[in-house]
Write a structure and sequence with these properties.
mainly alpha; 22 helices; 2 strands; globular
Length: 519
């Protein structure tokens, strides 16, 4: 891992202003009536402007769908109607920045080698900033609870008995309980990250911040809608992917002066994370849209669809920007002007992401074309989230199918990664037994059947079939996957330069071959 030349732990030393022209990134501090304002670079100023941009988009989106209009009955007042979207924007933005900075500090930024387990200067800075963002996240989470209470009960904060309703809502109503649990997890992440000087503690804070997103997914419309399993899973994947992606990119822009010479390696690591986040956001977005739109025409004929169309356009633009970043910017980060080119493109991406954050808040406050109320005429349907299946039989156990998109996506990723590794080996001139590839693909098919086939469908209905599903996941899926020896295929590209495929197959002295021969 690349090491950082700055101090390992503790606050940075105070330094004098550099001479003009010695450091291109330096900006002098500003003195205003005895107060010293921190220096801000143009990129940081643009990032600050992203928050009001997201607020404006959210308010405009909510107004477009008619949710800002006063209610005829139980109107909570303008403070709640306008304050709740603003609080949600601040909540989501602070969550993204907290989680992105913690992930960068735990897994992406360069470490140091003098004190094992201790954070480097860049990691310490990212964690310190994440702590401040977590404090904002916590305050916004409390504001969301208060304003959501007013929106639900139709009371303004100034009305008598409002705060008693807030206490009851936060502890006695399911939606309020989820929001309260999320706020408690944010507080735990804040306490854990505060003063963290060990990488393990930073990682624990990142896990707690990730866990704080789960109650948010469970507290939305998805939890009580038809197809609630797919709705909740896709929303959770979407939240994690988007927050890590957006927060990580904004964190890289802010931390760019701290990593300097290590910037190419850091951006290269983050680009891998960003690619997976882009794929997760796109996949989960498609699943969510399919559950909330009746037909593709809803994208242009409804206000909800227009907001969703804007998000789709933004996702395409971000995908193009990411491709440009990987193909053109990252290869020349070591050259003159490479860092500034990265900053310009990254800041542009964050601006587009901020607009999508505002659109997402507006979507969460708007009713989709497909009603999301649970099915009340069939209790079994409302509990399962899909129509109750026909009586079980052997043929139905084999042929029944109801997609669990989360596990179907996992199975597809596993199959695709394995096939890509095999193709890479063959292009290099190595041989890989076709039987192992077949066994791996059979394991992926078994995973899909156990979660989306008959075992998954009837496992939600019968306890006996549920146990069959458990046995399939624990025994039938791992057996062919183990026979495929994925660890050997992963380690095979580590062959030292000059070692021939035939020599390696006949007993090369490569440490990689020795480590996988018995696997």
């Amino acid at each position: 891992m690349t090491t950082d030349s700055r101090p390992d732990t503790g606050p940075p030393r105070a330094t004098s202003d550099p001479a003009p022209g010695t450091t291109p990134d330096a900006r002098p501090d500003v003195q205003v009536d005895g107060f010293q304002l921190p220096s801000l670079r143009p990129a940081e100023l643009v990032l600050l402007a992203c928050l009001p941009l997201a607020v404006v988009v959210a308010i405009a989106g909510v107004a477009l769908t008619g949710e800002l209009a006063p209610r005829l009955l139980m109107d909570p007042g303008a403070v709640v109607r306008f304050g709740l979207p603003v609080a949600r924007v601040v909540h989501d933005g602070a969550a993204a920045l907290t989680l992105g900075l913690l992930v960068l500090a735990a897994a992406v930024l360069p470490g140091q080698g003098r004190l094992p387990g201790a954070v480097s200067y860049a990691q310490w800075t990212a964690t310190r900033w994440a702590t401040r963002a977590a404090a904002v996240w916590l305050a916004a989470a409390v504001a969301v609870i208060v304003l959501t209470t007013g929106n639900s009960v139709g009371m303004a904060p100034t009305e008598p008995g409002f705060w008693a309703q807030v206490r009851y809502y936060a502890t006695g109503i399911e939606l309020g309980q989820f929001l309260s649990v999320s706020a408690l997890l944010v507080a735990a992440a804040l306490v854990t990250s505060a003063g963290a000087r060990r990488v393990g503690r930073v990682g624990a804070a990142a896990v707690l911040a990730l866990a704080a997103l789960l109650p948010v997914a469970l507290s939305g419309h998805a939890a009580g809608s038809d197809e609630h399993l797919n709705a909740v899973n896709s929303l959770l994947v979407h939240l994690v992917a988007v927050t890590v992606w957006v927060g990580g990119l904004a964190g890289l822009v802010l931390l760019r002066p701290r990593v300097r010479t290590a910037l190419p390696a850091v951006v290269a690591r983050y680009s891998v994370v960003a690619a997976w986040c882009f794929a997760g956001a796109a996949f989960s977005g498609v699943v969510n849209a399919s559950l909330r739109l009746g037909s593709p025409a809803d994208l242009v004929t409804t206000s909800y669809g227009l907001l969703l169309t804007g998000k789709v356009v933004a996702l395409v633009l971000l995908g193009v920007a990411g491709w440009v970043q990987r193909r053109r910017v990252i290869p020349r980060l070591d050259g003159p002007g490479g860092g500034r080119a990265f900053a310009r493109l990254a800041v542009g991406e964050v601006v587009v992401m901020a607009a999508t954050f505002g659109a997402s808040v507006a979507l969460s406050r708007s009713a989709p074309p497909v009603p999301q109320d649970p099915v009340t005429y069939d209790v079994r349907h409302s509990l399962l989230g899909f129509p109750y299946p026909e009586p079980v039989s052997l043929s139905r156990m084999i042929t029944s199918f109801h997609p669990d998109w989360l596990f179907l996506g996992i199975a597809a990723c596993l199959a695709g990664l394995y096939v890509a590794a095999v193709v890479r080996l063959r292009r290099r001139g190595d041989r890989w037994p076709a039987g192992r590839t077949v066994m791996w693909l059979l394991g992926c098919v078994a995973l899909a059947w156990a979660t989306s086939g008959g075992a998954g469908v009837y496992g939600s209905v019968h306890f006996s079939t549920h146990m069959v599903q458990h046995m399939a996941l624990m025994m039938f899926v791992p057996l062919p996957s183990r026979s495929a020896r994925p660890s050997a295929s992963r380690c095979a590209p580590c062959r030292p330069a000059g070692t021939t495929p035939a020599g390696r197959a006949s007993g090369s002295s490569s440490s990689c071959t020795r480590g996988t021969r018995g696997s």
